[in-house]
Amino acid sequence: MTEPSAGSEMPRMRIDHVGIAVESIEDAEALLFVLGCEKIHEESSEYGEFTWATYVLGDASRIELIAPDDGSESFLTAFLDRNGPGLHHVTLEVADLATAIDVLDAHEVRVVDHAEFDHWGEAFVPPSNPTGALLQLMEYDEGYAAHRVAGERLFVDGDPL
């Protein structure tokens, strides 16, 4: 990894949420409710065999629970088999995903699984990085909130970057 240099500026970003892998959303969310979280969203993934649910705590803290769908075999079942329930990823919302990837590439940071979907884009910095954490970089596109029941509540402070 190279040191940051002039002219390689990362776009604005912030922590969007922390993703926790669980066997059962229903079982795990009981603790989140005791902590004061409010569930605002749950849906099956469009591109994988898992379900994810979003919880808010206060004005800007958000937690995501992700659980494999019954009978599915996926990255998530492999993760749970290997590690058990626990921290899966930290999602960083970025104002410009393409620029963020270019800056990371320029600094020899490995970025994998870049994908563009109807209303968002994402890429990952694998946990082989020095933090040991899987980092998801996500950019919300126009219309993301309109396609989900929780709407703008899915964004930190109600607005994407």
From TrEMBL:
Q: Which residues belong to any copy of the VOC domain?
A: 14-140
Q: Which Pfam families match?
A: Glyoxalase_4
- Does the keyword Magnesium belong to this entry? no
* GO molecular function (one): metal ion binding
UniProt keyword annotation of Ribosomal protein present: no
Which regions form coiled coils?
A: none
Which UniProt keywords are present, listed alphabetically? Metal-binding
Recorded protein name is: VOC family protein
Q: Origin organism of this chain?
A: Halosolutus amylolyticus
| Organism ancestry | Archaea, Methanobacteriati, Methanobacteriota, Stenosarchaea group, Halobacteria
